[in-house]
Queue: 2 jobs
Job 1
Amino acid sequence: MEYSEIMVRYGELSTKGKNRMRFINKLKQNIKHVLSIYPDVTITANRDRAHIFLNGTDYVPVAESLKNIFGIQAFSPSYKVEKNLESIKQAVQEVMQDVYHDGLTFKITSKRSDHTFEMDSRKLNQYLGSAVFDVLPNIQAKMKGPDINLQVEVREEAAYLSYENIKGAGGLPVGTAGRGMLMLSGGIDSPVAGYLALKRGVDIEAVHFASPPYTSPGALKKAQDLTRKLTKFGGNITFIEVPFTEIQEEIKEKAPEAYLMTLTRRFMMRITDRIREERSGLVIINGESLGQVASQTLESMQAINAVTCTPIIRPVVTMDKLEIIDIAQKIDTFDISIQPFEDCCTIFAPDRPKTNPKIKNVEQYEKRMAVEELVERAVAGIKVTTITPQADSDDVDDMIDDLL
Ligand code: ATP
Ligand code: MG
């Protein structure tokens, strides 16, 4: 037998009272976006569960995609069976014979939402249980903690059998916490920061600063590829490219080397904040962490932060580099992050940036520049695109093989 649908149980959102329907609709939308790479799959969602109809699509890759989507607590693939006793019985026998091995225990848990069906759930349990003994005389029934809990659900349109319960990603559906701007470089840390913000329901928009011709198209593509990797957790992500060349040249010309990094970051922060305001974002998220290099001291963080009072979430701030790399590998961004394309910061970064920049000095240097106009021009020049999920390249290879 082949799986016909997947039953999805919601995560933490079950505790959210009257917001429940808003959460569920968001989750449904996110699942739709993530599963859009499987054109035949359809989805419905009600107060208690969502149902994903495979319509002939292979179950395995769909399940892999589902495992990533935030807001899903668990899911079960199910077999659809014609709603009559004989068909249900045969299907139950077939499934149990398929999964049975020596020593395995089982129980049947029936549920009847169609109350006109000829047997109630208690009778159905007994009837189907004895049907299992007919074909597997050595199997043991066990009411508490059986190896296989075969769930039989008699609904209006059909009956459904399921016995697997697969753990979902947990977290909150992306978008239920509001919008935040993720400052996304091509590095290892910011995609991980983005992932962690997504996990708590933040609808991130990726803001990337590019300084062509100093930065290459490859660096831009890298940031876009990283963004695409992040779409598997909750669907489409808006990608915002900011033209940053003019500002970097201006800083280079007007300020001493030791302050380039701090000034650059302050401009990035101002611009991101302006974009946030225009696009109704509530917070800024970045990949800053505490460490030994200059951009990572608390003094530096304070100098950069001083240009805004918007809340800034720094999901990786207290993590060790190895912990961050661990997550980057898990979410499959690491290999992209280590591609050797120079970021705008790497190119203009001096060998010895100040580890304890003085705000007074910083402000002095900024007086030499038309800060407001520079920021405005950069914001006016942004390019906004939508990044959508894409089948993994392995899948694409398979598809190409299929075509040949
Ligand atoms: P990452 O690995 O994310 O690049 P990092 O450890 O290299 O971080 P920095 O280079 O000091 O740290 O950057 C700190 C943060 O500033 C980044 O995590 C990112 O949020 C932001 N940032 C740096 N460069 C860019 C850029 N070109 N576009 C957007 N944000 C950037
Ligand atoms: Mg970096």
Job 2
Amino acid sequence: MSGFDRIIVVDWSASKVPSPKKPSPDAIWMAVHYAGTTVCTYHRTRHDLIIELCAHIDDALSKDERVLAGFDFPFGYPSGFARAVNGSDDPLALWADLATHIQDGADNANNRFDVARDLNAMFPGVGPFWGCPAALADADLPAKGSVRHGHGMPERRKIEAMIPSAQPCWKLYTTGSVGSQALLGIARLQALRDRYGAALSVSPFQAPDTPIVLAEVYPSLLADDVAALQGADEIKDRAQVRVLADALAGLPRDVLDAMLCEGDTQEGWILGVGHEAALRAGLNNQPPPLKNDCFALPSGIEWTPVDAALRDLKTRLGPVVGTQNIAVADALDRIVAQDITAVRAHPPLPNTAVDGYGFAGGRGDGLHRLALVPEQMTAGTRPDVQVPAGQAIRILTGAALPDGVNTVVLQEDVTRTGDSIAFYGPLKDGANTRKAGEDVKTSDVVAQEGRRLTPADLALLSAVGVSKVKVRAQLRVGVLSTGDELVAAGAAAGPGQIYDANRPMLLGLIARMGHVAVDLGQVRDDRAALSARLDDAAADVDVILTSGGASAGDEDHVSALLNEAGSMALWRIAIKPGRPLALGMWRGKPVFGLPGNPVAAMVCTLVFAAPAFAQMAGSTWRTPTGFNVPSAFEKRKKPGRREYLRARIRDGRVEVFASEGSGRISGLSWAEGLVELPDGALHVKPGDPVRFIPWSGFGV
Ligand code: AMP
Ligand code: MG
């Protein structure tokens, strides 16, 4: 993967007023690819974009991370322009000069036409800049390009000659208005140069070996891919920055580094031109990033079957956490980030599986008598002994076989007299020994990427000489309770109030899943308070699990807020217990909005959140492990919904909790797992096999 921790792509705009409040085309869009996720944001002004961009860069610098930021406007002009304006071919001197003349307000009001007019005045004839509203046109700045003459500048840069669809940088107005974008953009980027100094370089004018690298991009390079990957309701500008960020993030480090060094160091260059195939490969290299619309549901489907919902989660969610190297001793329950191979074979040498006497070759029927050599072989030693043919050596379990030994007779089968032994055959050649590498060979994969390490895995890794492992950083899951009626444990509860039962339960489940459970507390049914809490949470955790307020009622503010953020889908899943799950993105972080009802909250967590979180944590998708057990109950079930019953096994039969009431927390505590009844109609009679999934089968 690329040598950058964050890849940012910006679709720039030269608008003179703020873009509409509602996310719109032809405005500023930014895609930030970070830790496996690409998040897109919409910005109404250049000022707003720069603030957000600097926040990303500052955060990255504070974490020692590198940032590549791409902008879709020319970083330079045809050669000769900088010298004509500034007396030097240095494009960055031109940047500094332009920045002193451009005024660009927080409300997008700017003086680009005036600056272009002044620049034109430095050239003979008319031009090279052109294009402005008719009322602003004059002898120095023509409205039409065709009236320009005699200014002496080439119409295009070399790179633009390679891309006929790119607009020339002299054109200030109407389609593309690339000239205006460049004047305003260069001034803003010069401000970044001033702010970040030596930490920032501009490709290809400078070597891209700084923490922050700026580069010119052209999202239309991947037009076909964008068309294929654009979401149904997604604005094209958004899809363009998103897809290009993904493509760049998927490039191998050396490939991206080489691309950043390419091009004309006076005129500038468009990153990746001529390497479209590599970019496309980069796109395919990506783990599917979490998109803002990753929870969108196909329209028209009333009730999504459980399996379809799980399939969707499986295909849309990918790892969102980075990797780290840790000692095997600390790696219990951690998720392997890269296949682990044996450093050493196991066993490393042929050895004996029993206490006994070793010699060469098997023996036939009858009595055998062998002289003993004086040495003794114990585990952990390997004296340089050669056992002569026809003689034997005393050898203890685990000891490496000395030269001349490949067979061991059990000491219980031997009579020892002085320095010889006697025993009865037959004994097979190689009996009671272990071959080198018979368990694991050097370089065998001993733990695959995505595996959650068990105590036995730690034994295996240690046995084959592995001491450090590359694992995923732990997923941080925030747990938030919502509802005016909730009181935290220990507080005084007024009439009508109830204690918050979900939060301790969900925090416990998350911890059992091997993630970091972050207590986000509880919040009233108040949109502003909830929104503020989600903001804080999104900055701290990888995924947010809320309970309560997830339906479509008046007080269901979780779904209302996610809806407003434009990223929510209410998953009506055909499951009992469980009302809709509200799934959405909040400031780039997925939110799982669970029903408030504790039974439904727990079932939905086990069935949906557990596998989804496992996958986000870098683990392979896990299907709960259940098994069939004769039923101790009778139940008729209607078709249409999958049902989960609180259950436990007693005397070889599975019994279910007396009440199916979904508010009965006592039933959750009584149960040791769930019985899963299929979607169709069913009549379970005592003794019929039903599928029981113990809590451990859900990974908790
Ligand atoms: P809601 O999904 O917000 O409509 O809540 C559904 C039911 O679950 C209501 O009876 C709530 O009082 C209850 N509930 C919501 N949150 C919790 C919680 N954290 N602990 C216990 N019960 C809850
Ligand atoms: Mg509520």
